[in-house]
Amino acid sequence: MAAYRCPECGYVYNEDLGDEFEGYPAGTPFAELPEDFTCPDCAVRVKAEFERFDPTRAGPD
Amino acid sequence: MKGYTAALPSGEAIHYVDRKRWLWLASVVYPLQPLIGIWLHAETGVEAWLLLPLFTGYVLMPILDWVLGEDENNPPEEVVPQLDADRYYRILTYVVVPLHFLSLIGAAWWAGTQDLSWWAFLGLAFVAGMTSGLGINTGHELGHKKSKLERTLAKIVLAVPAYGHFWIEHNRGHHRDVATPEDPASARMGESIYRFACREIPGAFVRAWQIERERLARRGRSAWHPDNQILQSMSIAAVLQLGLLIAFGWKMIPFLLIHNLLAWWQLTSANYIEHYGLLRTTDANGRYERCRPRHSWNSNHLLSNLVLFHLERHSDHHAHPIRRYQSLRHFDDLPTLPNGYFGCYLLAWVPWLWFRVMDERLLALPHVDGDLDKVNVDPRRRERLVARYGPGGA
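Predict the joint structure of the above. Result:
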């Protein structure tokens, strides 16, 4: 499964893990997040702006 | 003094010393003022000392901001990761948390146990509230961070002003909707601070509750589940305020009422001046452009920034909300406030004066260029403002 990253603050939505705190169970595809999904950490970037991200590769953070 | 060394893209090494490093202690000491006033009252018997924070905040601060002026210095981007990683800066934001509790409890103790004249009692409740408003500022800095410790401390300190919903409201609501007509926490051109308060205070609470309720619903939980972060903070506030009532008796009812209202009013005043009239444009799909530095009013005034954890560098804060206070930047050509926040609050409390100073500043911004369509205008005032400035500007 894929992961998507907020280009502003580095928050990563990993489909394998979901985001339990936000109420998205593990395995929830990014595409199924609500259309008005906004970065839960910075609220600056919206769903369409998230970038594909390889979680196995060390990220800039 | 501690410094940081990094390499510029050219390969040249730079060494940076943060000259404000120790001065940030001012943000820790500033909320202790009610206790200093109480001590001076106890020593001299002069009740007027209890009003010390009022004098510092609304007489001394605006004058000193004007005299000491602005500081446009930015740390070089290359050292920012080291500056952010330096634990000293975040420890200051932890240390101030118990001090906010101490200030409120100390003021309540003095008001509840001393035979004060009526104006000194009211004055002490007033300054206690003003000071707890600074607790919202501390909660603001902590609540924007990703660590569990900082987020927990944010919820705890927000119990002092009894404003537990702020963390959700601000991070998830205000930052998402800032500088749009939809945001109850962004003031519109032509809207007085008093009308703004009537829209902002209930609007913010409703939005926070909605956001938290939706999150809990996604987790299959009721809005009243103990996982509700608003209720967590509010419970601490309830224990604190009931405790004060039990300890110091009925006098705490008017004291805490005034205290709470004043603390909330501090936030309302800050929100009012931070985005007055600024508007994000919409694209072809009706979506708002991303928040940029030009969507917040900025102030580089040295002293008031030092006592507010750099809150007044608000343009960078909204464009990059995770950035730590010590690293917030000044940019050229920003919407700029005429004084620090304290001086601007005074201005905002006199609406005709505020409009007179700020409306022209707003229309003169390069991205507005006199065009009222590029301004967040109060619909009730649009006609009057168009008649005065013309739809295409002055």
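Strands of chain A lie at 3-5, 12-14, 51-53.
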